[in-house]
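new request in #modeling-help
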Amino acid sequence: MSKLEAQRSWGERLILLVPYLWLAAFFLVPFLIVLKISLSHTAVAQPPYTPVFDVAAGWSGVIRALSTLSLENYALLGSDSLYLASYIKSLEIAAGSTLLLLLIGFPIAYGMARAPRRWQPVVFVLVVLPFWTSFLIRIYAWINILQRDGLLNQLLLALRIVDEPPAWLSTDTAVYLGIVYSYLPFMVLPIYATLEKMDETLLEAAADLGCPNWKAFWLVTLPLSRPGMVAGALLCFIPIVGEFVIPDLLGSSQTMMIGQTLWAEFFANRDWPVASAVAVVLLCLLVMPIVIYEQVQTRDLARGG
Amino acid sequence: MFAPWADPAARPLVRFDGVSKRFGTATAVERVSLDIFSGEFFALLGPSGCGKTTLLRLLAGLEMPDDGRILLDGAELTTVPPYRRPINLMFQSYALFPHLTVEGNVAFGLKQEALPKAEIASRVDEMLALVRLEGFAKRKPQHLSGGQRQRVALARSLIKRPRVLLLDEPLAALDKKLRSETQFELMQLQESLGLTFVIVTHDQQEAMTVAGRIAVMDHGRLVQVATPQEIYERPTSRWVADFIGEINLIEGSVTEVGRSGTVVASAAGRLRALSPADVTAGDVVWVALRPEKVRIALEPPPVEGENCVAGQVADIGYLGDLSIYKVRLDNGIIMKTAVANVTRLVERPINWDDRVWLTWSSEAAMVLTR
Amino acid sequence: MRRASWFNIGSLALGLAFLYLPIVILVIYSFNASRLVTVWGGWSIRWYAELIDDRAMLESAWVTLRIAFLSASAATVLGTLAALALVRFGRFRGRVLFSGMIYAPLVMPEVITGLALLLLFVAIDIDRGFWTIAIAHTTLITCFVTVVVQSRLLTFDTTLEEAAMNLGCPPVKTFLTVTLPLIAPALVSGWMLAFTLSLDDLVVASFTTGPGATTLPIRIYSEVRLGVKPEINAVCTILIALVAIGIASASLLAKFHHGGRGAMAGLAGR
């Protein structure tokens, strides 16, 4: 086009190229390596796998390498029930805690959105603030409370609700608690954003047309906050599936979530190809909800939402 | 009289030569050729989306034309980047830098020229005095009223003494009273500084008030370029006549063309117009009448004949200075007439459903072919 | 009119209690004189005093801060460039891949990112330690900066840049004198967000660490696995205090400059 645009495009190219190359080198390429290693053979060596590609061998090397690609690691994932159980456990915990988060997060978001205007910034900051402190610290804080002679059991004993201190740590309950606690803002904030944007005259219009408050909530507020709920659910569900720290610190060691399995394969068993295969399958699992979300979003956009 | 556009020897300051601009498949400006002369107060007028702002941005260099050339003083301007053009723009949104003070905003243009600090300071003071903002130099724009912001924007775009000052709907954000005051201030400023102003507006009254010449635009094309009087009294098309002010249009066909005017046969009878028109007998034309040039009476005129129609008052609008009467003619056509309320009579002499006669002189009527 | 019903106030209060109680308890117990973490033995700053002598812990803290500072700064540069490309360039070749790479780390489980980066570092055979963690963290947190800066750029009034150019300011100078000062609050929030995320990260650091680069989360994690210790309570309290001071000063600064909007946007970015 014009000279002006041509001049600018040099700077523009640089602006684009720097982050592009960084992400390609440290995000895209690593995943290709994961994919590659998931297809190689396990070896007792350092590093603990036999390389599939030998770049120096050139094209013939690539041909030879392709013929030695193996799906044995994936076959192992399918045959050993440990992995399947792990995946199922992860999905189960992610689905359950997402549901819990919706049930707990919605009233909080609703309370925030309906708080008087001048309180809103304060309430907003109060809800978000704890999540600037370390994830690890927050989980650790729960260990303090949940351990056998911790505050929760002391309280329960003092109130004579229980006679024997129950074990809270190393249970699924603790995992759910930790997840709900850690992911709450990811659920609350998107819902709050849609509720806060909602035109309050809609509710007045509903009342004016003879709709009682509870019914207006059901017929107006809830449907309009759906985008926020969907976004919140995805923002929680996806990372929870791959969660490692919470189940590792609060959960039992009997059935591991997939993040733990991957960690164990990698650090304890030093089976990098299998760990890579676990990662690839997990990735494929997680792409699905993202694709669904994208479609919901484009549909909403198309409807002018 | 100042009328360089009528002088074939005059050299234009700005020349658009067959300029077109497309956005995707939409054409914003289509083959516009236009001359603007030094010292003019020129208005680009048209409904929203007609391409007038695009034309202004092309002149500022914020858009690049797809076709055609733009010349300044005879020199090629088309490929000059915006920051090298001696042309400044006052934005519709004012576009004041929120992180700079009033002073910083006004000084911004001079700072780009690396002038000595003392000179910048004195010129900023001078300019702030000119727009009566002396006490506000250290304020941030967000702490000013709408009118004050408007004056900061004006000062900022004037301080470089541009060859052409472009004003994009400069008064649109002001309320009505302030707007009409500011219009006269702008005119005085333009005259006293001797600069060339090009204003974009969708408000026909504003364009008529401030500008020496108006370019009426529609769908990216220039429809008529002329003085305000010419555009009002001699529009070249029904569209222009209707866009500028109110108009009554009566369709008919030409029966006579002669020295005593053009005679048109219409559903409202025989109409005679003295205005020159390039028509021959049998052409389909429209006789156009401004409402204020139509007389209304409760009695039929002594000689009924040409330029006289009868009807019933269908609606009355009282505007204070004027009253507008909508009259339904016997053949169903609605005609409007505006009557100046020259007395303080509270009782209206003409009322709803009254039988009335509308008359006008043949000098008042225009014949339009488009 | 807004009426705060009892249900609303109640759910909000319960929610806030749920959020704050564990942290408050942690802070209180860090001042516990007793070594038995579950028995209250009176107020004391004994564990803080012991921390000062804990060289390993201090070492970790120093490494973590350096990594966080470095990677937050790098991520702010990269993230801002990426945001500019996404907002200003319209369609360009490879845009889908680019935005995919930008947003994927937002939801990618950290175990996968960590594993992938480690395998890369092994493949190119570089010594793991300080620099590999810094690179990994930069990659992990760039997307957060991008999101924060992007939302600011989307609402940025580009006529301001046009006005600057119209007044004779060339494009690069326009960016430096008009655009950059105006998006600076977003850059600051982005940097802060990136800094705390790097400070916070355990998983990716565990994968990409090497000898001599034990970050604070890695150290805390290995201690926590062995049970609750009063020293850890003290470390955590100091970290909480630092974050609180950081947030408070940032929001005060933002309030001072821009009526509190910058900090709010930053907080919302989390």
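bot summary: Confidence is low (pLDDT under 50) at residues 259-270 of chain C.
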